[in-house]
Specification:
The protein is mostly helical. The protein has one domain. It has four helices and no strands. Helix 2 packs parallel to helix 4.
Length: about 90
């Protein structure tokens, strides 16, 4: 089981999934930014919103990092990383 949990194939699949999520998010950020500019919202206002959103996204995620370190002994590094990055985010949105 340890061979599967820490396998390079699983690492590649997880990294691919996370890259997909990041690219998807950046594409929507770019579309939303362009649409806001079309609506007449200033770049200064958008930058303030982006900065405050980053703070409100990063600070609560510190508890997720604690959960990551708690799951590593049980699930291994790669699977814990996947569980708390994509799956955990998906269920917190619902």
């Amino acid at each position: 089981m340890k061979e599967i949990i820490n396998s390079p194939l699983l690492l590649a699949l997880v990294a691919g999934g996370l890259i997909y999520i990041v690219l998807f998010s950046l594409a929507y950020l770019k579309k939303a930014y362009a649409r806001c500019l079309e609506l007449g919202i200033t770049k200064e206002t958008l930058n303030k919103v982006i900065k405050s959103s980053l703070v409100f996204s990063i600070v609560p995620s510190l508890s997720i990092v604690v959960g990551l370190f708690a799951l590593i002994p049980v699930l291994g590094t790669i699977w814990s990383w996947w569980r708390l990055s994509v799956i955990g985010y998906r269920f917190s949105v619902i």
